[in-house]
Amino acid sequence: MKNSILFLSIFVxxxxxxxxxxxxxxxxxxxxxxxxxxxxxxxxxxxxTAYDLNNIYTYxxxxxxxxxxxxxxxxxxxxxxxxxxxxxxNYSKGxxxxxxxxxxxxxxxxxxxxxxxxxxxxxxxxxxxxxxMQYWKAEARFLRAYFYWELLKRYGGVPLLGDTVLGLxxxxxxxxxxxxxxxxxxxxxxxxxxxxxxxxxxxxxEWGHASKGAAVALKCRVLLYAASPLFNGGGVESDATKKxxxxxxVADATRWQKVADAVTEFKALGYYTLVTSGTAxxxxxxxxxxxxxxxxxxxxxxxxxxxxxxxxTPVGYVVSNVQCYGLTSPTQxxxxxxxxxxxxxxxxxxxxxxxxAPYTGRDPRLGATVFYNGLTWLNRAVQxxxxxxxxxxxxxxxxxxxxxxxxxxxxxGNFTTSTAFSNQSHNFPIFRFAEILLxxxxxxxxxxxxxxxxxxxxxxxxxxxxxxGSSNRYGIRVGITQTEMRDLIRNERRIELAFEEHRFWDxxxxxxxxxxxxxxxxxMKITNGTPLTYQVVTVTTPxxxxxxxxxxxxxxxxxxxxxxxxxxxx
Length: 570
Description:
- The chain is mainly alpha-helical and 570 residues long.
- Helices cover 37% and strands 8% of the residues.
- It is built from 20 helices and twelve strands.
- Strands 1-5 form a two-stranded antiparallel sheet. Strands 2-10 form a two-stranded antiparallel sheet. The protein has a two-stranded antiparallel ribbon with strand order 3-4.
- A hairpin with a 2-residue loop joins β3 and β4.
- α15 runs antiparallel to α16.
- The longest helix is centred in the N-terminal third of the chain and has 26 residues.
- It is globular and about 75 Å long.
- The relative contact order is 0.13.
């Protein structure tokens, strides 16, 4: 088997051209090239079959800048695209429609599901070892379950095909399964394949393939969403049928116990831990630029590159004769969510926050997530004050620049004192151990085990570099209530997992999007002088309608399959 996740090779592409030219009429769907060539009984090493499996991995969401050049988080209160009228802003503007959805993942997911089913049907033809057969089939089932998860969080219940490979003459008018049925299918698949996947940690040569940890992590996430307010009896639908398609019609608090049990199952694997190397926030930064580490559970693989550095570095930097783009503008709303280095919120009178020096003494993760004025990068201080090189505000040019006074630092390499970029590992994290700790904290708190939840958050804060304080509680007050802890966990999740495609969905599953996405999105206007002056300004006011809690099934899919019930409001 090829030892890393690969895209289709020139060799395979050539085969596609040659085999395609031999047949004038299409009598069966052309997914890659015909199964007799892909799954060849003479291919004793399964070389071409491995290409097919690796191709299924390419349908995983890309994460970085994948919504027409922007992060999905730029459609939340955490960021804006630096460009005006970017597609992702349709979410924050409330202008999504059946034919204009910035994240139309429906087709990608179904391509992946079909590819997995074809693989599972025909892989037995290939004379590979029993061990590889076990791993490869389990991987295909994991990927299929993951694609169903991506559909579930967007649309709710969807048609469940099982192992069926549909042909041109088959009936495609298949109704949607309920939300509960879809959750059960994904969770049961994860349980069934867990012990057939590679144990953790995978060998270096197999890194990037789904492991046992990935299957259990997927189970944790699916159950977390299923227990959350929107899906756990809190649906916004007025139609009972549609409510059952997009969530559980009746709330059940015991669903939180299933989440906690899944986390216990994950922790029993015994391998994954937080990366804590170096002085904070080095461990946090290194998670995203080291291809293999003890925190990454599963990631979308990419060749090493420096594209993210060019795309996200502030616009005043010219590196290797290329001007950087500064595509993402994190908001003041997000910056204000980071506590002080003592763990206290900046709104706490005892925190030591100084509005005249707003970035001094803050949680070290702030500087590892956001470029703010004065942060050192490529041997100079970032200048996002009015007229600074990173916010020139020159009406004579149409240069794109930050809309909020900030740029995105997260995921980039360590180039504080460098003069140029070098290629970095930019594998988008789909699951990492920090999320597991946050999931556990949320479940434990909802189960009334507040202090056990506190213990999980302390692990993250200690790694972040927040000081323990005299009580060794890292800014979490003694006697914190369940309601207060719920807010703290949600905030911790926001800052720890920023730009990892959680905020967009968290706002929905917590059923707070209507409130949050109607609050002004702000930035920081900095006027140069001695001293600098800081003024929080409103950049835009978003709009949200309840129908945006679930995505619309694409119009052409509804047209082809009248048994697909459209989500409410679309």
